Amino acid sequence: MESVKGRPYDTPALSEDGVIGTAVDCIEFDAVYSHIFQYLLGRTLVVETMERAIELQKKYNQQLRIVTLTGEQFQPGGSLTGGATKKKRSSLLSRREEALRLESELASVEERTTQLEQQIKNEENRIERAQQERSVLDEQYQHTNLLYSASQTKIQNIENQLERKNRVLNEERERIVQIDIELGQTKHVLSQSESELAALHNSPEQQGDQSAIMERLSTLQKAQQEAYEAFTASRLLCERLEATLEERKLQQEQRKQSLETIVARLAPLMALLQSSQERLNVTIPDQIRVAKESLDAIRKEVEKLRVLRDEAYQSTSGAREEIESILSEQDRLNQRYKVVQNRLVEAEGKLTRYRMDCERSIEDLNKLGYSLEDAQHIHIEGSVNDWKMEQARLMAEIAELGSVNPNAVEEYEETKTRYDFLSNQLADLDIAKEQLQAVIAEMDKAMSTQLYDVLDVVGQRFQEVFSQLFGGGTAQIVLTDPDNILTGGIDFYIQPPGKKRQQLTLLSGGERALTVIALLFSFLDYRPAPFCVLDEVDAALDEANVERFSSYLNRVNKETQFIVVSHRKKRRWKLLKYYKV
Fold this sequence. Notes:
Layout: E1 19-22, H1 34-41, E2 44-47, H2 50-59, E3 65-68, E4 73-74, E5 80-81, H3 92-202, H4 210-368, H5 372-376, H6 384-401, H7 408-470, E6 474-479, E7 490-495, E8 502-503, H8 509-526, E9 531-535, H9 543-556, E10 561-565
């Protein structure tokens, strides 16, 4: 890789019209490998058209390497690489059968495509129905959840209200107990007061204080009345609270029954909700997934069928064109047949008219006083047989003409236009053929000239390398047909040191191998390469020839890097680097 060194290509052809540039300028690559791409593509010009490339090759004496945008390659020396494929033609019957088969396949593909598209619509409808069912189940699930949440909230409110009523009832009961205690105390005080009052009535000493006692008694009675009223009010309040409590208990029982009824109604709904949730989470996604997989498979099959349909259209296009041309030709022949038939009818009409004219002429002769026999004595040039032959000839020509075609002028104009078009096309093809033959002849001439030059240089260098490798002797490259170098062959006449001159095929294996090595080095001297791989070229050489071969490699490895693969021992090679495997 180190020995590959590309130099910029400087040639006046780069400034010519139609030259885009060098091939290395038209691609992108890593700058590390720029010297490799410069070596491989730096001397190749990219030209727009083949005609411009031919003109440049003529102008620069076939010394350029050119690539056109349509793929033609011009090598130095004038060789052209391109090519075309021959169109295979088949019989009309096979074309028709193939066209019918392809049309049948196309119809089946279109029918299958229609079926698959209908299946796709059915699957999409199924998916849509499943999604609608899922939406309905979602709405039912949400409604059931709302009912359940509302029932739970209602039960919680009833329980809270019941707890508050129980707490109020307990407080009122405690208050009644407290009032009972205070009422007992008041009764006790009242009884004591009454005892004291009776004692005062019975005691003469206290009669003077009767007024004070009466006041105290009235006070105590008033307190007793107030205590009794408070007790009565508390008793009434307690009774009302107990009634309210009973009513609340009754409402609680009713609400419990209603709650149990709601729970009983919610049980099947919860079961339905759970089954719907399971179906929503498991069954419907599986159905949707299966439907989508089926839909994807159907779509892939539809795409394949569409590709097959396009291929069938493409394959049938050629056959259809051929059949159309044949049908047009058949229509033209049918029209020609009709023309001939019309001409035949017209000739028969003319013949009838001629006969009628003859009969009228005989009648006219009779009117003039002549008979047919008298008319026959009239001298007419030629014999009756001649006239009959002439009549038969005319009748035959009339029969050949056929019936009169009223569209003959238009058909003639169309045929003439078609003929002129095809004549122009034929003339263009003849001109193109002459131009191509001229280009081929010029390329053959340029290739012959360059091949002569190459063989001259390679032959001289072959003699030198052969003498160095063999230590003497002669080697010669001889053309079998010098006048036709492109079609003739090449012979090699070799004379090793101390032997007679003979052809390459008559040498021993080692001599042939060393001769071929000398020829290889001759070509490398003419057109150096950056590196060269030699795989066991020394297999047929003896020890002395291996040493001479190794010494020669060391002399010529300045411009080319050689990689030698060998089973020889290291001491037999005088190389710069040695790798053992």
